[in-house]
Amino acid sequence: MIKRLKKIIGFSKKSLINLNPGDFQRRLMADKEILYMAETFGACWRYDYQAAAEGRVGMHAILKCGAHSDIFFNAKIFLSRPNVMEIVSFQLALKYCLHPSYTRPDWVLGIPDGAKKLGEDLARCFKAKPAEMEKENGKLILKSRIRPLESVLIAEDLCTRGTGLAEAAREILAKQPRARLIRQELAVINRGGSNYIKIDDVREFGIISLARLKANDWPADNCPLCRTGSEPIKPKATDENWNLITNSQI
Q: In the predicted model, what is the mean pLDDT of residues 60-76?
C-alpha cells in the first residue's frame, strides 16, 4: 500500500524550496499539496473578482486553444527548481505505474516548450528514451526516429482541451504511422474538467494528472471579462506578460 506524505500545506516558501525529493519516493501527494506548492511559488494566477467589483478589472488569460480564462498555471515557474521537477516527475511516474493500464513506454515525449524537461525526467524514471520534439515557426516537429510498434508516452505541463496533445500525436503518427501511442497522457495539472480527451483522427486519451484546477473558460467572442473592460493577454508569451497579468489588479 502506498503511503501518503505528511501534508506540506502550511510550509513556508523557503521550506518548499528545500524539499528533499528522496522523501517523496513511494508516497503519493494529494492534489491540494501540488496546488499549494504552485500558489506559494507564484505559479498559479487567479482573476480577482473582488478587485474587479471595486473597479480594478485588470487582465485575464488567453489559453493555447484561444479561449479566455480566469485561471492560469505557469509550469515554467513551478518546475524551475530542480528538486521540485524531480518530485513532480517521480509523482507522475508513480501515479502512472499504479494505473491499471500501465505499460512501460519505449519513448517519453514532453510536449515543448513547457514539458520538454519533464519528459526527459520521466524517460529516466521509466528507463525509456526521451523523444525530441521542437517547435519551429509555431509548429511541432518530431526529431527522433521512432521505429514501428515502439510505444510513446506523451506528457505535458497543463492539459485543458488537448490542443497540444492533438498536435503532438498527429506529428508522431505522420512521421511513424505504426508507432503505438499509449492510451494515457501524463499532465502536472488537468484544468479541462474531464478525465479523457478524444482526438477524432487519432484516439481517446485518458488523463493522469497530479492535480485539477477548477477554472472558467469562455470563447473569445463571448467572454464576460472582456465585456467588463478586462484586457485579454497570453500570460506565458513573455516574462513581461506574466508580470503584467499578475499585477494588473493590485
A: 93
Q: What are the tens digits of pLDDT across the range 125-138?
A: 999 999 999 999 98
Query: How many Cα atoms occupy the beta-carbon half-sphere of 166 within 13 Å?
Result: 12
Cell of 26: 513511494
> Is the bond preceding 113 in cis, omega lying within 30 degrees of 0?
yes
CATH number for the domain whose boundaries are 26-250: 3.40.50.2020
90, amino acid identity: F
pTM: 0.89
Nearest to 210 by CA among 164, 158, 163: 158
Domain definitions of the chain by residue range: 26-250
Between CA 44 and CA 131 the distance in angstroms is 28
Q: 183 pLDDT exceeds 80?
A: yes
The predicted-structure confidence for 106-127, as pLDDT tens digits, reads as follows 999 999 988 999 999 999 999 9
Pairwise CA distance, residues 172 & 144, whole Å = 9
Task: Concatenate the DSSP letters of all residues of 163-175 into one string.
Answer: HHHHHHHHHHHHH
Distances (CA, A) of 4 to 13, 29, 187: 21, 6, 20
